[in-house]
UniProtKB/TrEMBL annotation:
It holds the Pfam family Bac_export_1. It is found in: Cell membrane; Bacterial flagellum basal body. One of its GO terms (biological process) is protein targeting. Keywords: Bacterial flagellum, Cell membrane, Cell projection, Cilium, Flagellum, Membrane, Transmembrane, Transmembrane helix. The keyword S-adenosyl-L-methionine does not apply. This is Flagellar biosynthetic protein FliR. Belongs to the FliR/MopE/SpaR family. The gene is fliR. It comes from Sphingomonas panacisoli. GO terms for cellular component: bacterial-type flagellum basal body; plasma membrane.
């Protein structure tokens, strides 16, 4: 009996309880949380990983389904899963910040498209950088690292009221500051060249006031921006790998301390 006269198989109840943390992490994490992934796929994947967790770690769910202790335990599991996925999602926001800086300087900030990760309208350049970072995340087996982290988190943070400490929640907030710094560093090569171009155009406008800046400055900014992106893409790709690694390290520090 698990409350209100309901009977359920203990193994099934344990699997559902384990799936809460895994499913919450997949909702907030990049790649797994993309709107293009159907909900049945996420549920099936959470159940498959939950079976592995039950085979490795002895998880004892609350005895009553409808009880205050059960609701608190489920909330704690959801908080842990959402925190793990949210840290990685924060790291994936760095290319969007860089695209805003570069796109505004190039004059293509108005160009937008639907982001396949979240289903919202984002700058076209930001979508390109986001897809590139997703491919780099998969190339370094970041999705496998996330799954391994979720499985091992049950040994460090056992279910049943294992709330995250205040210092770990503070680390999540401070990691958001790193995202802004990383986004600016990612946009630095192209942004610096566009800043130099704007200074040159400004000096030309002072020397020749009759010159139409919109007829000269906008095409020049677009051309210089495209060339600078092509030249700086290898360095930007390397730094995206650093951002991915920092996100994975932050998630591991969140779980393992």
């Amino acid at each position: 009996m698990l409350g209100f006269g309901l009977a359920i198989e203990p193994q099934l109840w344990a699997l559902v309880f384990v799936m809460v943390r895994i499913g919450a992490a997949f909702i907030a994490a990049p790649v797994f949380g993309a709107v293009s992934i159907p909900l049945p796929v996420r549920i099936s994947l959470s159940g498959a990983i939950g079976v592995l967790v039950l085979a490795v770690h002895p998880v004892t769910p609350p005895s009553a389904v409808f009880g205050l202790a059960t609701f608190m335990s489920v909330a704690a599991e959801a908080l842990i899963g959402l925190s793990i996925g949210f840290v990685l999602q924060i790291a994936f926001a760095a290319p969007m910040i860089a695209s805003e800086v570069i796109g505004t300087s190039m004059g293509i900030g108005f160009a937008s498209a639907i982001d396949p990760q979240n289903g919202r309208s984002t700058p076209a350049l930001g979508q390109f950088l986001s897809v590139l970072m997703t491919l780099l995340f998969l190339s370094v087996n970041g999705h496998l690292v996330l799954v391994d982290m979720l499985v091992r988190s049950y040994a460090v943070l056992p279910p049943g009221g294992s709330w995250l400490a205040a210092d770990r929640l503070k680390d999540i907030a401070f990691f958001g500051g790193y995202t802004f710094a990383a986004g600016l560093m990612l946009a630095l090569p192209v942004g610096f060249l566009l800043l130099c171009l704007n200074l040159i155009v400004g000096m030309i406008s002072r020397a020749a006031p009759s010159l139409n800046l919109f007829a000269v400055g906008l095409p020049a900014s677009l051309a210089v921006g495209v060339v600078a992106l092509a030249l700086a893409m290898p360095a930007m790709g390397d730094y995206m790998l650093v951002i991915v690694q920092e996100g994975l390290d932050a998630a591991q520090r969140l779980v393992f301390g």
